[in-house]
Specification:
Number of strands of chain B: 2
Number of strands of chain A: 2
Distance between the termini of chain A: 18 Å
Structural class of chain B: mainly alpha
Number of helices of chain B: 11
Number of domains of chain A: 1
Strand content of chain A: under 5%
Shape of chain A: globular
Oligomer: heterodimer
Helix content of chain B: over 70%
Order of helices and strands of chain A: HHHHHHHEHHHHEHHHH
CATH class of chain A: Mainly Alpha
Helix content of chain A: over 70%
CATH topology of chain A: ABC transporter involved in vitamin B12 uptake, BtuC
CATH architecture of chain A: Orthogonal Bundle
Radius of gyration of chain A: 19 Å
Strand content of chain B: under 5%
Structural class of chain A: mainly alpha
Strand order of the largest sheet of chain A: 1-2
Number of domains of chain B: 1
Largest sheet of chain B: 2 strands, antiparallel
Order of helices and strands of chain B: HHHHEEHHHHHHH
Chain lengths: 317, 289
């Protein structure tokens, strides 16, 4: 327990240090790592801990991003006020999507959410919502400046702000998953019937988990929209959902710390692979997915945790 | 009224393509209880093989059959190499492997044949037929699809190999005891599914044009068709595919407009799964705890 606190603090120190030393673009990349980490965290709560597979979390990310963008562009709402709003909106949508998902076992849920991910750009482009969403063109929003005349550039401030939100989200997630509800989620994943017999309300737990998961990914979407300062339907294609899934698997589905590794992976690997060829990022993702499934089913996070446990055991002896 | 009939008939023509992809999905689902998310990309790859064979100067039908044969081999190879180790793994693992396969096939297609949109020839004349209701290609592709569906039916009902494949899917343990090589039957099933997918790809490519993401929408309609008909019933999947084709065309023309056609597939999937999860012709599955 104490060791994991130590790791968390070390990670935090390592995360704050770049503010002073990194240039604008690298800071933006790190901001996106934080954003992706929160999004994958949402997916990990649903898929890794509760056992409901979603291939469509890009849809919630898109809804969060659009909530923020519409509030900022149409009503001039300050950027930080949009986060709780989009959390509420996405939790609501997640709850509604979770309702039919109750009747769907693993594979069918994966299929339905996959369909959701394929369909969402079309809905965003649709004429009926064009006055708010800006249609195919999307929306441009202003990048926030540092408040109280702090001597920070907008990139530095944005990174610190995302980090702050991220720390809160991670603390909440750790709290949630290690407590009574977290144990109930794992029980449902491992044996739904036994969990029900022990008095867990399956329907309530599953839909609420879906809502929490959608909320996390939605808040990530909002942060992402603020960081990029632009939203458009085509940036939320099915490939985004698959990217989150890849990040989840790479980090380790049931590992909270692993989501950070997954986020680093999906932010930097495509950039490196892109230099080889346009087709390379997809191929790398695909190969990684299959190799992870065969060799490291618990992901990088699970692998590190296992190694750590072995190390502690050896040290204790 | 004439417009309505036109929509229904051309819905049936596209429905045939959905029906064959749905059949390919169901064949793999029946035998392994996996849904092949990569079915669409595999079909696209096969279509590119056909185009390559045509470009090196082979006549259309030779290239077509050649691509079908190559797809069959690829399907068997994928089952042997990738799917065999995860046959009894948890759902998350199999979904991961299938999504990985989807990404790899998609990238390999883009890398080998580049991302530009290509025209694909049709072996049928473009003249309108049946009193102007249907183009020659639509009529021809419906004919080809029906021929494929009927021969698959005859194969499973009236050959020893088809019987062995059905037995392997229905009860692997008992089939193994009577001497059926269950593993090879699954591989054959994969090969057949890939071959059927390649036919569907070649039939749809002249209409939607060929690019690496050609089948992603079609895969969604095929999912909807397979679920509508019942994911463990081949006949149901075929009927479901045709129905989705008609629903999609009528919905696109009269209700939601062409921009929301994919959303229509999503709505079909969600309504089937919530209202009648076993589909129109599927069996209800009971499990002991």
């Amino acid at each position: 327990m104490r060791a994991s606190w130590l790791i968390a603090i070390l990670v935090l120190i390592a995360a704050i240090w770049p503010v002073a030393t990194f240039s604008g673009y690298h800071l933006f990349q790190l901001t996106m790592v934080v954003v992706y980490a929160i999004a994958i965290l949402g997916l990990a709560i649903l898929t890794g801990i509760n056992g409901q597979i979603s291939l469509g979390h890009g849809a919630f990310y898109a809804i969060g991003a659009y909530t923020t963008a519409i509030l900022m562009a149409s009503w001039d709402v300050p950027y930080w006020v949009t986060l709780p709003v989009s959390a509420v909106v996405c939790a609501g949508v997640g709850f509604l999507v979770g309702l039919p998902a109750l009747r769907l076992g693993g594979l069918y849920l994966a299929l339905t959410t996959f369909a959701l991910a394929v369909a969402i750009p079309q809905v965003l482009k649709h004429k009926a919502f064009e006055t708010w969403t800006g249609g195919v063109q999307g929306l441009v929003i202003d990048k926030p400046e540092a408040p109280f005349d702090l001597p920070l550039t907008s990139d530095q401030w944005l990174y610190l702000f995302s980090l702050f939100v991220g720390v809160i989200m991670y603390a909440l997630a750790v709290n949630l998953t290690q407590g009574r509800i977290g144990r109930a989620m794992r029980a449902v994943r491992d044996h739904a019937v036994a969990a029900e017999a022990m008095g867990i309300n399956l329907a309530m737990l599953k839909t609420r988990t879906f809502a929490v998961s959608a909320m996390y990914t939605g808040v990530a979407g909002s942060l992402g929209a603020i960081a990029v300062a632009f939203v458009a339907p085509d940036s939320f294609s099915v490939f985004l959902s698959i990217t989150f899934f890849v990040g989840l698997v790479a980090g380790g589905a049931a590992s909270i710390g692993g989501t950070i590794i997954g986020a680093i992976f999906i932010e930097f690997v495509p950039n490196l692979a892109d230099k080889v060829s346009k087709a390379a990022p997809g191929a790398v993702y695909g190969v990684i997915l299959i190799v992870m499934m065969f060799l490291m089913p618990k992901g990088a996070g699970g692998f590190v945790a296992d190694m750590w446990r072995k190390l502690v055991k050896a040290g204790g002896r | 009224m004439e417009g309505f009939i036109h929509q229904v008939i051309s819905g049936i023509a596209t429905g045939g393509i959905y029906a064959s992809v749905a059949l390919a999905l169901v064949m793999i689902y029946q035998a392994t209880h996996h849904v092949n998310f990569a079915q669409g990309e595999m079909a696209t790859f096969s279509t590119y093989i056909t185009l390559t064979l045509i470009n090196i100067g082979l006549p259309y039908w030779v290239a077509f059959l050649g691509a079908v044969a190559i797809s069959f081999v690829i399907g068997v190879a994928i089952e042997r190499l990738l799917m065999r180790p995860v046959a009894n793994a948890p759902v998350l693992t199999s979904v991961g492997v299938f999504v990985g396969l989807l990404l790899i096939v998609n990238s390999v297609t883009g890398w080998m044949f580049d991302y530009t949109i290509k025209q694909f020839p049709s072996p049928f004349s473009g003249k309108p037929m049946l009193g102007g209701f249907l183009s020659g290609h639509e009529l021809g592709s419906t004919g080809v699809t029906l021929a494929v569906l009927i021969s698959v039916y005859l194969f499973f009902k009236h050959t020893r190999l088809g019987l062995a494949m059905r037995a392997a899917a229905f009860n692997p343990v008992s089939s193994r005891l009577v001497g059926v090589r269950v593993g090879w039957m699954l591989a054959l099933g994969w090969g057949l599914a890939a071959a059927i997918g390649s036919v569907a790809g070649c039939m749809v490519a002249p209409i939607v044009f060929l690019d690496p993401n050609m089948m992603s929408g079609i895969l969604l309609y095929a999912f909807a068709g397979a679920l509508l008909g019942g994911i463990d019933s081949p006949l149901g999947a075929v009927l479901g595919g045709f129905m989705v084709g008609v629903i999609e065309n009528l919905g696109g023309a009269y209700v939601v407009g062409t921009e929301l056609k994919l959303t229509l597939a999503l709505i079909i999937i969600i309504s089937v799964l919530t209202l009648k999860p076993s589909g129109l012709m599927g069996r209800k599955v009971y499990s002991r705890v």
